[in-house]
Amino acid sequence: MILTDRLGFPFRKRKKDDLPPDHPLNFPNEHLPGSSATLVQVDEISLEAYLRPSFSDRCRLQEYKKGIYFSKCYLHERLKATQPKTIIDVGANIGLSSLSLLQEFPSVTKIVAVEAEAENFEVLSRNFEHWKSQFENVQFEAMQAIATGQDGAAFEMSRLGQDNPQTTASGTFRFTPAQTGITNTVTMAYLLAGAEGPIICKMDIEGGEEFIFNADTAWLDRVSFFTAEVHDRFGPEFIDSSARMIASLSEFAIVPDRDVLHCYRRHQVNNPDIST
User: Fold this and answer.
1) Where residue 254 falls among pLDDT bands split at 50, 70, 90?
2) What is the pLDDT of residues 31-84, one digit of tens each?
3) Distance between CA 51 and CA 124 in Å, rounded?
4) C-alpha distances in angstroms, 118 versus 3, 171, 199, 231?
């Protein structure tokens, strides 16, 4: 199992005149309805995807082009040789992460993509429906739900881009436990039950990994490749979000694919008495 970090697009202010037309900063950082998406060519083989004219969707396109959820090394080639069959995409957004992994692992025959936010899910569903005709041997399944570690939980939604529009795309959301709220959830155990292996699991849920790994983690034993974004560095409210995930993964055979890891002592550097 390999835990990778994210090589995503850094949010910086630049002169737009110096940017190519499809650069994310040429688009508004607004959360747009799924109905605003149009078909856009995303690579040199004329593959198309529905995208909204927003910073968030263009960031997803940049991530797709960079292939941020895998990296080439001998471990990667060994993984490909096992011919993975299933992709579980948790926090699928508009589906480009699923597409990237599918193109890298052509042996995959089924993708299960989970996205909780309604407008993102609409674009995800349109993309999956469109790609069915281009990947006839692949079963595409999109689920509108919050992935969690146990049944019976309720969650509330917050828009990260609204809280900090200078550093976060408007199409990203966080779901945190609440007494009442959204109850349309799905457990990781359910997602992996009956899935054909080898299994690839991608996770990018804006700190929500904290609430997946606080319960049953036996499902990890079925995962051959785990690729995730961790969010502790995004702000004080995220400082413990990956703690249980890292602890859980340590019970299994993790092989980090980065030769330099930047590791901070969580609560020492997050001390509120430190002035910066």
Assistant:
1) low
2) 899 999 999 988 877 789 999 999 899 999 999 999 999 988 888 999 999 999
3) 10
4) 29, 11, 26, 22
Q: Kindly tell me the burial class for residue 64, based on how many C-beta atoms sit within 10 Å of its own C-beta (0-12, 13-18, 19 or more).
A: buried
Task: Show Cβ contacts of residue 193 under 8 Å, excluding neighbours closer than 6 positions.
Answer: none
Helices 96-104 & 118-131 angle (0-180, nearest 10): 40
Phi, psi of 42 (to 5 degrees): -110, -10
Would you say 67 and 104 are in contact if contact means Cβ atoms under 8 Å apart? yes
* Residue in 119, 128, 96, 98 with CA at minimum distance from that of residue 36: 119
Q: Which of 90, 154, 156 is nearest to 124 (CA)?
A: 90
Question: 175: helix, coil or strand?
Answer: strand
Per DSSP, 115 falls in state -
Strands (E), the chain: 3-4, 38-41, 48-51, 86-90, 110-114, 139-143, 146-148, 155-159, 173-177, 185-187, 199-203, 223-228
Q: Is the entire prediction scored with pTM above 0.70? A: yes
What is the CATH class of 3-8+24-269? alpha beta
Give the DSSP H/E element, type plus range, for residue 75.
Answer: helix 74-81
Domains in the chain: boundaries: 3-8+24-269
